[in-house]
Every structure is written in C-alpha cells, then in structure tokens.
Specification:
The structure holds two protein chains of two kinds. By secondary structure, chain A is mostly helical. Helices cover about 70% and strands about 0% of the residues of chain A. Chain A contains 15 helices and two strands. Chain A has a two-stranded antiparallel sheet with strand order 1-2. The mean pLDDT of chain A is about 80. The model of chain B has no long low-confidence stretch (mean pLDDT about 80). Chain B has 13 helices and no strands. Chain B has a single domain (about 65-275), classed as MetI-like (MetI-like fold, Orthogonal Bundle), CATH 1.10.3720. Helix content of chain B is about 65%, strand content about 0%. Chain B is globular and about 75 Å long. Classes of the chains: A mainly alpha, B mainly alpha. Chains A and B meet through helix 1, helix 2, helix 4, helix 5 and helix 6 of A and helix 1, helix 4, helix 5, helix 6 and helix 7 of B.
C-alpha cells in the first residue's frame, strides 16, 4: 500500500494527540500570551513581508502580483541601492560590527585583570554610552560636531590653526559617514560587552593552572587557547548582539545630519532605504523585498558567527 | 584574573582602559554641564567645556515650552512614565512565566519554541516595519495607547536570558513542591520568582531601555500629539536646525532621558552581571 499524504498527516495528528495527553497543560496556558504576541508582531510580519515582496502594493488598492520583479529591480536597476546604500551598509557593518566587537572583547579582558571596585566603576563608564540609545546620543554629538565656530571640534581645529573656516561636518557627504562610524562605535559596548565580561570572569582558574603546568607561557597564548574557547557561548551571544545592533542602526545618519535622505546618501543604510520606499514612495512591495534581504543578511552573518563560536556537533 | 584588591601590576590594563573610558565619558560630562549653562554661556565663543555659573534656567524653559499644538512637556513625560512602568511590569511577567514553562514544565513543543525564539533574537524590528504597520492598522491599534505596549513586551533576548537562568535551578526544588501539592502557578510565584531576581533585573533594564528611549513608535504609529512619548518630543526638539539656541533645552531633555537609564543600571548592575554568566548561546 503506497503512503498517501493524508495518511502521513493523520499519523502526525495521532502522535501529536498522544504527546499532548502527556503534556503539562499549564505550560500551554503560561506560554500562550508570549506566543500570541510573538506571532502577531514578529512571526506574521515576517511572513507578510515574504508575501508582499512578490507584489506591488501602495496601501490603497489590493496588492498586485508582481512575481520576481521587485528582486530583479533590486539587483539590476536600483541605482541608489547599488551606488550608495549597499556599499555604505557593508562598510558600516564591517567596521562597526567586528570593530566594536573586538574593542568590547579587549576592554572586557583588560577589565577582568583589574580589581573589583575599580572594574565596576570602569565597566559602568564603558557601558553608559549604549544607554544613550539614539536621541541623547545625537544631541550630544550634534553639539560637538556642529557646523559653525561654536561646534566644539571646529573650535579646537580653528584654535590649532588646522583649518581656516568651520566645517559643516554633519552636512558634508565626506565626513558624515566617518562621524556615524565613530558615534556607533562609541555606543557599541552594550549587553554583548557585559556578557563577555561575565564570561571572562567566570573561566575556571583551574584551567589556567593546568595549562601553566603544561607549559603555557605568554598572555597571548593564554587568551587564544584557554580564555576564548572557555567562553565561546558568551562570545557567540556578543557576536549576535553586535550584528543585530549594527544592522538596525538606521536612524543615526538622519538624526545627525538633520535631513532625510542624508546629503548625497552619504549616511543612508539599508534601513533608511526601506523606510524611503515604504513611507515616502508608498511602494510597500519593494520595501518588503528590501526587508527580507536585510533579514537574510543578518541571518547570514549570524550563521557565520555560529560556525566560529558555536558548539560543533 | 579577577583579583580582589588593587596591585600595581594591574596598571598596564588600567592604561588600556582609561583612554577609552575617557572617550566614553567626555560627551556625557559635556552634556551634563551644557544643561546647566545660562544662555550667555551657551552661545559663548570660544565655547567652554565646563559650566561656570550653573543655573536651572534651561530646566524652567523646557517645562514652560509647549509645542505648536499646545501640549505641555509634562504630558509627554507623563505618557513616557506610565508606558514605561506598564511595559517593564508586563515584560517581566511575560518573560518569567514563559521562561519557567519552557525551562521546567514538560510539554512536547518546548524545544521548537525555544529554537524559534533563539532564532528571533536576530530579528530587527525596523526591517519589517511595513508589514507591522499593516497589521497594527488591521488590529485597530493605530493612534491608541496600546500600540506603545503590545508590540514591545515580547522580547526574544529577554526570554532567552531568563530561560537560561531558570535552567540553573535544581529540579529537586520543584519536585518537592509538586509533592506538597503545589500547582504550577504557585511554584512559579513562590519558588521561581524569588530565585531569579538577577534575571528579573536584567529584563527590567532591557525593557526599560527599549521603551523609555523609543521615539519610533510615536513617530510611525501615532498621529495625536497627546499620546506621544517624551523621547519623541526630544527628537523633534533636537532636529530643529538651530543647534545652539535650543541647545540648553535639548541638553536638559537629554539628561532627563539618560539619567534614569544610568541610575537603574547602577543599582542593578551586579544582578545583571550575574545573569550574564548564563548568557551563552551553546
């Protein structure tokens, strides 16, 4: 007798029923609110994005099926994307992501060598910028990089005689990107940093002693062969946090320069592009396609980190 | 590694950290000073870093300013405070009860849910802001108070951290309670919650940061000014092009945004570090 799909579905339903009978029913009750919210605001939007990406949709009329045209446009005809957005996003992600991550690790490791009280104070100081999340951050840096003589950086440069006239840093296509990178790095020591610090502090001292007996000599060897492998789970957590943080940094360019889109698209990242097509041009189908591309990029880099730090099984 | 007391051979590491710490600190000290500067010091050239005659002028000006629609600042602050309190409370409840179920209760889809949640940690809300807008519109949540709360309280990172933490609780404790006839909810309330204070502290901080600092919900999903948050108001203040004249008020507003974050973190940081020990993804 050949297996038909309806037989397999029936079998699956039977197993599910059997397992359900043995389940702790209160578990379903407890997890229901979270699951509902998760479905509503995370799972279903992603599914919707997938569907919408194959349509043209302007929020007024019903979506029109558009097959792969959105994706074809993305790869071949979207000039802004290829000339500015994609290079900007990749440059930004490669500098702020691994750069911020390595900086977090170095700081966490250095802090672990310092005594408790001092370490706590310094850790709070290093973590503080990540608390400024967005608005406070830009106010602070806007004053520093302000375009007239009263901007602090302009003032210092004028005093030192390095420039003759104040530079409008935040409005200039040349400097805006660099400033974005600096500000992003400034705020990058967040939860991932704390996780790595905790990881380093909790490596068992016996591992170091055993290694010393086996002939381990330099600090560097100690880090590469004992510390990092022992805290791989925290390294992975820190990596995922860094990746997510980097790719969601859309508002930075717009807030710093005060204009949307940023001058000459110098500060525009993929998130800005999505908002552009979604809320300004009302081409939701294309915006959805872009969103999926972004999620895929994030997933790709996370899988890379998993390969590096995850348990190999 | 992890010394208890200071000794001079720790100096090289201190030297590594200090410049970065200074870089982190400078802008914050600057804003702190800026908020207390009287008007003549704000527009002063050459600009000074530290304030010489601190005043509360900027604070007064901020609180007397109304927007073009006549909504006073205090309304925005009130909104933010209420929303933040509700969100923090609900996120803690959701994450702990769901984490408890995923960690200690036996049901067969437990693994699937955990894996999906771990996947969702890589999720960036801004990527799907368009479908979210469509859904929220269909649910009738646009321009309501609830849109500040419902999309925000399910935090995958939070659930992950809480679940990892609860995994550490020995099962024997729970077995013993079951033998004594406790229901799952009583176990949750009387045994689990008191034991996971560090995880609760961490969720509190994460959700606080997510909601107190957020202006995007007000910008995207709300039209009526009276429902918008203080963070949103801050953003409108600072995007006006006249940086210097409004700088005093902006600085005060930034402080009001920043200080609660900092204070909460300082009080809870040892608990947060305790949670982070179990934060590894395996």
């Amino acid at each position: 007798m050949t297996k038909t799909p309806s037989m397999s579905i029936k079998r699956w339903i039977e197993t599910e029923k059997k397992q359900f009978k043995q389940d702790d029913k209160s578990a379903y009750l407890f997890t229901l609110p979270y699951i509902l919210l998760f479905m509503s605001f995370i799972a279903i939007p992603v599914a919707l994005a997938m569907i919408l990406s194959f349509t043209t949709f302007d929020m007024v009329s019903f979506p029109k099926f558009n097959s792969l045209n959105n994706y074809i446009y993305l790869l071949t005809a979207d000039e802004e994307f290829m000339r500015y957005i994609l290079p900007n996003t990749i440059k930004f992600a490669l500098i702020v992501g691994p750069g911020g991550y390595i900086l977090s690790f170095i700081m966490a490791w250095a802090l672990a060598q310092i005594s408790y009280k001092l370490r706590t104070v310094l850790a709070i100081i290093l973590y503080s910028p990540s608390l400024t999340a967005g608005i406070t951050m830009t106010v602070v840096w806007k004053v520093f990089f302000a375009g007239d003589e009263s901007g602090y950086l302009n003032f210092i440069l004028l005093e030192l005689g390095l420039i003759v006239e104040p530079i409008a840093f935040l409005q200039s296509p040349e400097y805006l990107f660099t400033i974005m990178v600096i500000v992003a790095l400034w705020g990058s020591m967040g939860v991932g940093f704390l996780a790595m610090l905790a990881g380093i502090l909790n490596v068992s001292p016996e591992l170091y002693e055993a290694a010393a007996i086996d002939g381990l000599k330099t600090r560097w060897q100690e880090i590469m062969y004992i510390t990092i492998p022992a805290m791989r789970p925290q390294m992975l957590f820190g990596a995922v946090m860094a990746i997510v943080g980097t790719f969601s940094a859309g508002a930075l360019g717009v807030q710093l320069s005060g204009s949307n889109p940023t001058p000459n698209y110098a500060g525009s990242l993929i998130v800005n592009h999505i908002e552009d097509y979604g809320f300004i041009r009302y081409d939701m189908g294309y915006a959805a396609a872009l969103s999926l591309v972004l999620l895929l990029i994030i997933y790709f880099f996370s899988r890379l980190s998993w390969r590096l730090f995850g348990d190999k099984d | 590694m992890n010394p208890d007391k200071w000794s001079w051979d720790q100096t090289p590491f201190l030297l590594m950290v200090l410049p970065i710490a200074l870089f982190m600190l400078m802008p914050l000290i600057y804003i702190f000073n800026h908020a207390f500067k009287p008007f003549d010091e704000l527009i002063e050239y050459p600009p000074r870093f530290f304030v010489r005659r601190p005043t509360f002028d900027n604070f007064l000006e901020l609180f007397q300013t109304a927007t073009t629609t006549g909504i006073p600042v205090t309304r925005y602050l009130f909104n933010s405070i209420v929303i933040t309190a509700i969100v923090v409370f609900l996120s803690i409840f959701l994450a702990t009860i769901t984490g408890f179920a995923l960690s200690k209760l036996k049901f067969h889809i437990q693994g699937v849910i955990s894996k999906i949640n771990t996947l969702a940690m890589m999720f960036v809300g801004t990527a799907v802001i368009i479908p979210r807008y469509i859904l929220i519109e269909r649910f009738g949540l646009i321009d309501t108070f609830y849109v500040h709360i419902l999309p925000v309280i399910a935090i995958p990172v939070g659930l992950f951290l809480v679940k990892q933490f609860i995994d550490q609780i020995p099962n024997e404790l729970i077995e013993a309670a079951k033998i004594d006839g406790a229901s799952s909810f009583t176990i949750y309330l009387k045994i689990i919650l008191p034991l996971i204070k560090p995880a609760i502290a961490t969720i509190a901080i994460l959700s606080f940061q997510a909601v107190w600092n957020d202006a995007s919900i007000s910008a995207t999903f709300i039209n009526r000014d009276s429902l918008k948050t203080f963070a949103f108001y801050m953003q409108t203040l600072s995007s006006s092009s006249n940086v210097v004249a409004g700088a005093g008020m902006s600085a005060v507003a930034s402080l009001i945004m920043f200080i609660p974050n900092l204070v909460i973190f300082i009080f809870l940081q040892s608990k947060v570090m305790n949670t982070m020990v179990h934060s590894g993804i395996k």
